[in-house]
Amino acid sequence: MSTRLPDHGGGSARAAAVAVARAHGVRCADPVVLADRYNVRVHLRPAPVVARVATTTALVRPDPLASLQRELAVAGFLAGRGAPVVPPSDELPPGPYRYDGLAVSFWRFVARGPDRTPRPDQARRLLAELHTALRDYPGALPYLAPWEELGRVLDALERTADPGARDPAPLREAYQRLTPVLRTPRGPVRALHGDAHPGNLCVTAGGVLWNDFEETCAGPLTWDLACLRRTSRLDGRAALEAYGHAPDDAELEPYVQARRLQSVAWSLLLARRLPRHAEHAAAQSQHWQERA
């Protein structure tokens, strides 16, 4: 059985983004792929528009359009409240669209500054402010969608396994062990970013903006705080200690474990689609097994 998953990234994603944008009158003479990992992001130069095309994520999402629609709704709500977020595009209706089998949404282009890592105190403050802004979000949000989705990631890894692939059984065992804990929250359930690590903060000349709301969900605050705590981009412990009313290490630990597991599983899935990431995914998996 092949370990290679369908690759609809790069050129085909760029072509889909350009076709939809041009159909709405957007001039994009020099489109450039900014990233091709879990989604493909295309800057439709010279227009101030970035297209997000679901690729790796679409392999495990029954309806990629629904995920993009929820992301646009949350980001649009927050932008309307003046929250520091990258907003949906206003150059064309932001979507989402389906083109040639691909799900596409459109966002405002923001230029990143030379320093791409926020300080711990900035990350803490921005996360607290984001949680405050999300309190009034009126839409329905699935409970811990990133964790429930992880089950489908593991399904995909198991379907594509062969003797040369990493055995996904330890990942499945960890998922089953942690699931009862995560499905029984100790605190109030509220709207969350869902993937609140500093990599989803855009440091620009005009300030720091939250980005990437495709995993927005309902859940205990502990989920987002674990995202911040386990980051390697800055001192996550310092950021968390400054948050205020943060859970202690014992309460946080299952969520930190869950985030580590999520990161490893998604890395392995990415490597099945794009083998150039195989070495990094294998190193992550090995590190996880040594700590498990």
Structural key phrases:
about 290 residues; alpha+beta; five-stranded antiparallel beta sheet; two-stranded antiparallel sheet; about 45% helix; about 15% strand; globular; disordered N terminus
Give the N-to-C terminal Cα separation. 28 Å
User: How many H/I helical runs?
Assistant: 9
- H/E series: HEEEHEEHHHEEEEHHHH
Average pLDDT over all residues: 87
Number of beta strands: 9
Rg from Cα? 19 Å
Q: Name the shape in a single word.
A: globular
The helix content, as a percent range, equals: 40-55%
Instruction: Give unreliable regions as ranges.
Output: 1-6
Structural class based on helices, strands and sheet pairing: alpha+beta
* Strand line-up in the sheet with most strands: 1-2-3-5-4
Could you characterize what this model shows?
Helix content is 44%, strand content 16%. It is an alpha+beta fold. The protein has helices spanning 11-23, 64-80, 120-134, 145-159, 169-182, 221-229, 236-241, 249-273, 278-291, and strands at 30-36, 39-45, 49-54, 97-99, 102-108, 189-192, 201-204, 207-210, 217-220. It has a 5-stranded antiparallel sheet, sandwiched between helices. Strands 6-9 form a two-stranded antiparallel sheet. The chain has a two-stranded antiparallel ribbon with strand order 7-8. The radius of gyration is 19 Å and the shape is globular.
